[in-house]
């Protein structure tokens, strides 16, 4: 069984590959299909953007497609970078540039560590021909570190401290992150609803 994920992000894809391998699914992403277009993320919410990605690619391929729209929401920044997480430091910004911008924003507000509360959010949408899309969410509470720590993961992982263990997401192995992350929690919610949705 193969499932197409409407993403070009290899960090997300690695996590989905590990999580779905236990379910017997092989994963492909948009980098395996150069002929498929980039879907513009014009929505104002995670759900709108995840729907745009899943439904556009499902219509173009006629296949069942999963999309993930996710981001980091920092309390003292009013939930930013949120849906703009990938583009926080500008269009096509690198992870390093986005992380530097986040540290800069928090430094200028001169707040204490206990006020650096944040959460990671994922909305997953599964789209398939002739079906209403399935939508689920997952969140991971934590706080923003003052310096980056750890070499694993992607995106904001070196700055995101897990509330439970005090480790950054980049100090966790892929397996450890996949036990507790926003993406893992969203996938768990998806699996509760998926069998019945498939039967419809
Ligand atoms: P696709 O749209 O092709 O899936 P993207 O990177 O543009 O890839 P998003 O629009 O969902 O994905 O942006 C999410 C950004 O939020 C992503 O680029 C990361 O910077 C950050 N992010 C999401 N999940 C993360 C995680 O598990 N660890 C660290 N950063 C994460």
Automatic annotation (TrEMBL):
Coiled-coil regions, chain positions: none
Molecular function, one GO term: ITP diphosphatase activity
Active site, per annotation: 69
Catalytic reaction list: dITP + H2O = dIMP + diphosphate + H(+); ITP + H2O = IMP + diphosphate + H(+); XTP + H2O = XMP + diphosphate + H(+)
Catalytic activity, EC: 3.6.1.66
Single GO BP term: purine nucleoside triphosphate catabolic process
Cofactor: Mg(2+)
Keywords attached to this entry: Hydrolase, Magnesium, Metal-binding, Nucleotide metabolism, Nucleotide-binding
Cellular-component GO terms for this entry: cytosol
Enzyme class: hydrolase
Annotated signal sequence range: none
Assembly mode: Homodimer.
Entry function: Pyrophosphatase that catalyzes the hydrolysis of nucleoside triphosphates to their monophosphate derivatives, with a high preference for the non-canonical purine nucleotides XTP (xanthosine triphosphate), dITP (deoxyinosine triphosphate) and ITP. Seems to function as a house-cleaning enzyme that removes non-canonical purine nucleotides from the nucleotide pool, thus preventing their incorporation into DNA/RNA and avoiding chromosomal lesions.
Protein family membership: Belongs to the HAM1 NTPase family.
Protein name: dITP/XTP pyrophosphatase
Organism of origin: Pseudolactococcus raffinolactis
